[in-house]
């Protein structure tokens, strides 16, 4: 289970696989939607084409029937049958099988052409009851019958599918070689079939035939016994009661590229393989080096800084990060050494200060107290013999007592600046500069600008110690003639210390101060960091040193 929690399995499980599945689903959905839209569009297109063809075909058939009725009415009105037919010789282009006129008893009155074509006579005689309308003959032709209103005259005309221009119509509707165009009559018999099926055969099983004869129009998709899908459009010819069916294979309709559109999701497989390859590369060149770097950083965090010295393979960014961490580790080690040296220096300084205080108390204060005790004993002996001489000695005793008190106060002042607590930072620093004891004749000046404000005791003590340490450094090391201290109060308190001493060479890094033995300057920086103050130092050989400290107030 721990392996499933790594970055690589996480990327595979949370990014690559879900993204791939989403792309596959989107591709399939888009392809399916596109296929459905194409099917709808093709069905509508074929239905519209079938409708236009059915309207044209119906008009041509209606025109033929109307022409026969017109001739029947004219002859019934009294016009000569022969004259009427001859005046309508254009009928031969519509009725290529001929036209015949008979009376109510069935006697032939006229025919066109002369002699009359035997096919139309045979077709008329084949009808038991010659009712007006269209009749499909055994030869595959169509017999059109019309009667006059008084039913005294019957006019019949025979025409073939070629005269009705059905082959031309079929070629117009067929968009592929396997497309089929079928015309059926009112009793579901084939009037014409572009596939060459027998005229007059039963067409009941043709998809859409029954719907077309019911007067319905539309389009549907059907699959034959060979699993071939067909798009079928059907339209009625309402004026004559026939139907028109246009069918073509779906695979012939769509573009070959579109037929392969369902294979589009398979194209995502190479993309998935490439993504996995990229992740494997990412794992080997990024994740694995980062894991090594994390392990090295953890060891470095435990104090083993040498762990970061081990090389790591990976992309340049990882190597740069490793180099940066190694550099940081080196800086931390140098800083630790600096802190250790500083701590050792502080310890030595404390011991030196204790030794100095002990010496000062022993050499001055204790000796002064011993001298006071001896003088007191001496005055007691003199007082018994010469009171006036004892009074003179008492004056000397008071002077010695005053000197001892000053010495004790000086020691106390060095240990704890009493002026800082009572008067504040600015007066304490003024008193500090006045108490500078330098045999070289160093002069110190103090300037205070802005409205003086009291700070917290911790901040004032830290600032006082910073100024005190800076002045001690000037006295001990700078060989300066003058030192200037300036305090500026405002949005922030600025402490500025400048001397005209010999200066020193500033290192590039502050942590290198310990290597040069400038522990006092390290102390300044540490105290400034404790009170969140910004400390800057500048020094030039032969010119002097400047220290500036900025503290938000």
Molecular structure report:
- With 553 residues, the chain is an alpha+beta fold.
- The protein has three domains: 1-259, Beta-Lactamase; 303-415, no CATH class; 419-553, Heat Shock Protein 90.
- 53% of the residues lie in helices and 18% in strands.
- The protein contains 15 helices and 15 strands.
- Strands 2-1-5-4-3 form a five-stranded antiparallel beta sheet. Strands 7-6-10-9-8 form a five-stranded antiparallel beta sheet. It has a five-stranded mixed beta sheet with strand order 11-12-13-15-14, covered by helices on one side.
- β9 and β10 form a beta hairpin.
In the CATH hierarchy, the third-tier topology of the largest domain is known as Beta-Lactamase
* Number of DSSP helical runs: 15
- Kindly report the name of the CATH homologous superfamily of the largest domain: PAS domain
Looking at how many chains there are and whether they match, the oligomeric state comes to single chain
- The CATH class of the largest domain, by name, is Alpha Beta
**Extended strand count:** 15
What order do the helices and strands come in, and which of them pair?
Blueprint: H1 7-77, H2 81-86, H3 91-94, E1 98-103, E2 108-112, H4 118-125, E3 133-136, E4 142-147, E5 153-159, H5 166-173, E6 180-184, E7 190-193, H6 209-213, E8 218-223, E9 229-237, E10 242-249, H7 250-253, H8 256-259, H9 268-301, H10 316-385, H11 387-415, H12 418-423, H13 425-434, E11 443-449, H14 457-478, E12 482-488, E13 492-499, H15 519-530, E14 534-540, E15 544-552
Parallel strand pairs: 11-12
Antiparallel strand pairs: 1-2, 1-5, 3-4, 4-5, 6-7, 6-10, 8-9, 9-10, 12-13, 13-15, 14-15
Helix pairs in contact: 1-9, 9-10, 10-11, 13-14, 14-15
């Amino acid at each position: 289970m721990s392996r499933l929690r790594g970055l690589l399995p996480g990327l595979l499980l949370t990014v690559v696989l879900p993204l791939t599945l989403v792309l596959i689903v989107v591709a399939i959905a888009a392809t399916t939607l596109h296929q459905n839209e194409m099917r709808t569009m093709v069905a509508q297109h074929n239905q519209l084409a079938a409708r236009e063809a059915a309207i044209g075909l119906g008009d041509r058939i209606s025109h033929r029937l109307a022409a026969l009725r017109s001739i029947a009415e004219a002859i019934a009105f009294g016009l000569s049958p022969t004259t009427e037919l001859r005046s309508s010789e254009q009928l031969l282009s519509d009725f290529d099988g001929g036209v015949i006129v008979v009376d109510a008893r069935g006697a032939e009155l006229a025919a066109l052409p002369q002699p009359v074509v035997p096919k139309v006579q045979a077709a008329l005689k084949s009808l038991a009851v010659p009712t007006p309308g269209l009749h499909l003959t055994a030869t595959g032709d169509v017999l059109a019958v019309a009667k006059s209103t008084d039913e005294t005259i019957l006019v019949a005309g025979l025409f073939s599918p070629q005269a009705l221009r059905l082959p031309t119509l079929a070629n117009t509707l067929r968009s592929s070689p396997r497309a089929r165009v079928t015309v059926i009559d009112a009793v579901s018999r084939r009037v014409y079939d572009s596939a060459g099926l027998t005229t007059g055969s039963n067409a009941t099983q043709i998809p859409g035939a029954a719907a077309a004869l019911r007067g319905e129009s539309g389009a549907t998709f059907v699959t034959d016994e060979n699993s071939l899908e067909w798009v079928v459009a059907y339209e009625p010819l309402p004026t004559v009661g026939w139907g028109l069916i246009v069918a073509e294979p779906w695979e012939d309709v769509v573009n070959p590229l579109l037929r392969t559109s369902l294979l589009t999701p398979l194209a995502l497989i190479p993309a998935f393989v490439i993504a996995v390859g990229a992740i494997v590369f990412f794992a080997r060149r990024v994740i694995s080096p980062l894991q090594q770097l994390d392990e090295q950083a953890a060891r470095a965090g435990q104090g083993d800084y040498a762990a970061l010295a081990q090389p790591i393979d990976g992309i340049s960014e990882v190597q740069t990060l490793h180099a940066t961490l190694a550099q940081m580790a080196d800086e931390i080690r140098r800083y630790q050494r600096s802190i250790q040296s500083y701590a050792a220096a502080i310890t030595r300084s404390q011991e030196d200060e204790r030794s100095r205080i002990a010496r000062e108390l022993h050499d001055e204060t204790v000796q002064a107290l011993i001298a006071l005790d001896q003088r007191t004993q001496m005055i007691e002996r003199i007082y018994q013999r010469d009171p006036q001489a004892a009074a003179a000695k008492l004056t000397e005793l008071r002077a010695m007592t005053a000197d001892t008190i000053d010495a004790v106060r000086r020691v106390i002042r060095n240990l704890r600046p009493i002026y800082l607590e009572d008067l504040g930072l600015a007066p304490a620093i003024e008193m500090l500069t006045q108490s500078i004891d330098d045999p070289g004749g160093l002069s110190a000046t103090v300037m205070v600008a802005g409205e003086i404000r009291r700070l917290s005791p911790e901040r004032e003590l830290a600032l006082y110690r910073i100024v005190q340490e800076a002045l001690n450094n000037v006295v001990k090391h700078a060989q300066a003639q003058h030192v200037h201290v300036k305090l500026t109060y405002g949005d922030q308190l600025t402490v500025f210390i400048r001397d005209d001493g010999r200066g020193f060479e500033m290192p590039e890094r502050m942590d290198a101060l310990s290597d040069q033995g400038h522990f006092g300057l390290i102390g300044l920086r540490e105290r400034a960091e404790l009170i969140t103050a910004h400390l800057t130092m500048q020094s030039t050989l032969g010119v002097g040193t400047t220290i500036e400290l900025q503290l938000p107030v």
